[in-house]
């Protein structure tokens, strides 16, 4: 089965440049006018203390990690994370030259083209219902000759990357995958149905927190690399899908460790509250363009015209996924099925959530972060930074993000911790008493992958940039 291999990162360079130049110009002028004292777009409320809404990160409980705080339930793993993260010089605020510009950091990471685009080898995976998702395996920079191989190499660690809900392969993801590749991971990007050049083969769209497709993708990765340790990182609103998967799968997730960059932890409230105009507008533009390709056929099952005419992310989501012929209930019922933390008590894998107190997309942390979750659940760790914007976390220059270094360091720490600890194979209320699946020093195929016969998966390999 041969399908298009064009990704949105390639198909829309002119759109990225136009949006980036226009919005960056506006944001620079706005920032100069405010003289570094930015407003978060939540009812015009002034952001004091560097844009944290009065929240002084350094005075919060938890472990001091550079200029950040690691907030979590005390445990041996928490101590190991605090120790190793503290050794990253990038977490010292003195090296953050862009810390007064959270909106600018966010706009650059989401709208500006990558400095050096990566090259991908794409697998199209046919799902049980005949739908398609795409897995983009990161080979390296375009100059790399490794792309001439027809199969993925044997690797020790695979990093599954879940983009934000728009599906765009952002500058932020290019930077993350490049660093992961340099650090010994084999990154692979999960593309939802109809996203990033993946054809919409059925009339089913991807709800915000429906993990069925991701479950099949994880099983496929395990099937292709049965001896590899599998990790996952999500970007922004993509955390809704990844956290839903962790809650539904529990100890059978097949993941050894997870990191979420600027996660949306209260998704329904996030949609209802709204986001800054420039993010709302650009996200709607990308999603409407994607949906318009299939408007004629989607009219059979959903209110696609209302979605294309919507002026907010909530209206778009509601029209497309809550009022179709096959949809049950309305807005509230939709979130009963898709809220990221609905099954959080079942999560059995260490999860690091990297958040910024000046995140302009999320809003002030006192109302957007479920503090009790991190203080009581031994699997969840919050690394809260006073600055960084939304998936920005710039250090000395915008070419790198210290958030990526922190995320990969947390995954390395988790594996090393469980390899040196004796873990009985039973779940306990204390994190000391379980080994996440996939962290065994003698890895083998996961139970799910072992049950799958040859020929279970249908895929087609192609190469993209």
Automatic annotation (TrEMBL):
Source organism, top-level taxon: Eukaryota
Family: Belongs to the AB hydrolase superfamily. AB hydrolase 4 family.
Compartmental location: Secreted
Gene Ontology MF term list: monoacylglycerol lipase activity; short-chain carboxylesterase activity
Gene3D superfamilies per the UniProt record, alphabetical: alpha/beta hydrolase
Highest classification ranks of the organism: Eukaryota, Metazoa, Chordata, Craniata, Vertebrata
Principal localisation: secreted
Cross-referenced InterPro entries: AB_hydrolase_4_sf (IPR050960), AB_hydrolase_fold (IPR029058)
The keyword Transmembrane appears for this protein: yes
TM region positions: 14-33
Keywords: Membrane, Phosphoprotein, Secreted, Signal, Transmembrane, Transmembrane helix
GO CC annotation: extracellular region
Disordered: annotated span: 426-451
Protein name: Protein ABHD15
Transmembrane among keywords: yes
Summary of the function given for this chain in its UniProt record: May regulate adipocyte lipolysis and liver lipid accumulation.
């Amino acid at each position: 089965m041969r399908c298009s291999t064009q990704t949105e990162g390639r198909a829309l360079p002119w759109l990225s440049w136009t949006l980036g130049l226009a919005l960056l110009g506006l944001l620079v002028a706005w920032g100069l006018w405010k003289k570094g004292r930015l407003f978060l777009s939540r009812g015009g409320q002034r952001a004091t203390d560097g844009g944290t809404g009065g929240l002084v990160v350094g005075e919060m409980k938890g472990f001091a990690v550079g200029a950040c705080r690691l907030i979590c339930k005390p445990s041996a793993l928490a101590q190991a994370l605090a120790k190793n993260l503290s050794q990253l010089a990038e977490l010292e605020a003195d090296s953050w030259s862009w810390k007064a510009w959270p909106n600018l950091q966010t706009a650059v990471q989401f709208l500006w083209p990558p400095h050096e685009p990566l090259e991908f080898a794409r697998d199209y995976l046919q799902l049980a219902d005949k739908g398609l998702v795409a897995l983009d395996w990161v080979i390296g920079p375009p100059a790399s000759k490794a792309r001439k191989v027809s199969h993925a190499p044997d690797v020790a660690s695979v990093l599954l990357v879940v983009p934000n809900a728009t599906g765009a392969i952002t500058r932020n993801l290019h930077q993350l995958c490049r660093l992961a590749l340099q650090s010994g991971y084999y990154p692979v990007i999960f593309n939802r149905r109809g996203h990033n050049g993946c054809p919409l083969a059925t009339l089913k769209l991807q709800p915000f927190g429906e993990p069925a497709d991701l479950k099949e993708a994880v099983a496929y990765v395990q099937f292709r690399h049965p001896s590899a340790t599998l990790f996952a990182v999500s970007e922004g609103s993509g955390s809704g899908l990844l956290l839903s998967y962790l809650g539904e799968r529990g100890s059978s997730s097949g993941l050894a460790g997870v990191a979420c960059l600027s996660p949306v932890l209260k998704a329904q409230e996030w949609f209802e509250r709204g986001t800054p105009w420039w993010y709302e507008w650009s996200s709607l533009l990308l999603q409407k363009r994607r949906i318009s390709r299939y408007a004629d056929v989607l009219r059979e099952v959903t209110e696609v015209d209302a979605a294309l005419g919507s002026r907010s992310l909530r209206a778009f989501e509601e029209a497309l996924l809550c009022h179709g012929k096959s949809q049950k209930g309305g807005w509230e019922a939709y979130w009963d099925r898709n809220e990221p933390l609905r099954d959080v008590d079942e999560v059995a894998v260490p999860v690091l959530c990297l958040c910024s107190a000046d995140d302009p997309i999320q809003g002030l942390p006192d109302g957007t972060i479920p503090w009790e979750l991190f203080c009581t659940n031994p699997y969840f760790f919050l690394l809260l930074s006073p600055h960084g914007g939304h998936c920005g976390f710039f250090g000395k220059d915008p070419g790198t993000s210290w958030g990526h270094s922190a995320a990969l360091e947390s995954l390395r720490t988790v594996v090393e911790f469980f390899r040196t600890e004796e873990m009985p194979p039973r779940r306990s209320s204390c994190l000391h008493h379980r080994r996440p699946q996939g962290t065994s020093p003698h890895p083998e195929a996961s139970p799910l992958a072992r049950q799958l016969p040859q020929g279970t998966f249908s895929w087609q390999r192609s190469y993209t940039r």
